[in-house]
Amino acid sequence: MGNAEDEKVLFMSGSITMLSDIKTNQSIQNLEARIAQVKRQLQAQGPMRPGSLSRQYNVCGKPGCRCKDPKHPRRHGPYYQLNYVYRGKKTSKFIRREVLQQVRAELANYKRFRRLTEQWIGLALNLAQAKDKLAA
């Protein structure tokens, strides 16, 4: 009688392991599909550039200029400045108004690129864990 109970426990244990393996396989397929989606989104990326854009107003210092008015000073500007670091070198550039919208779009594309690559790395780590679990 003890032998039949041992077989039931063994069968249940094997069934649970098989269910766990099925869930792990589904998880692996889901992760692989999500990675493929991220790769497609990365391929669709447009032009990009790193950095941040700031709007500045300046004082020229010329006597009698509107920026030196004692009652209602009005600074010159706005001027748009792009700042970024690439290969350890800090760079700052003024951006003309004519290309301002393009630069903003490129900055947004870069942020999206960074977000997608971080997402890909996280998914790849989860995928590696799931494969390790299946192999164990």
Sheet with most strands: strand arrangement: 1-2-3
The radius of gyration is: 29 Å
Number of strands: 3
Identify the overall geometry: rod-shaped
Describe, in plain words, how this protein is organized in 3D.
With 136 residues, the chain is of the alpha+beta class. Helix 1 runs antiparallel to helix 2 (100-135). The two termini are 32 Å apart. The chain is built from 2 helices and 3 strands. The chain is rod-shaped and about 105 Å long.
Q: Can you lay out the helices and strands and say which pair or pack?
A:
Elements: H1 2-43, E1 52-58, E2 76-86, E3 89-95, H2 100-135
Antiparallel strand pairs: 1-2, 2-3
Helix pairs in contact: 1-2
State the gist of this model:
The chain has 136 residues and is α+β, with helices and mostly antiparallel strands.
What descriptors fit this protein?
136 residues; alpha+beta; 3 strands; single chain; 2 helices
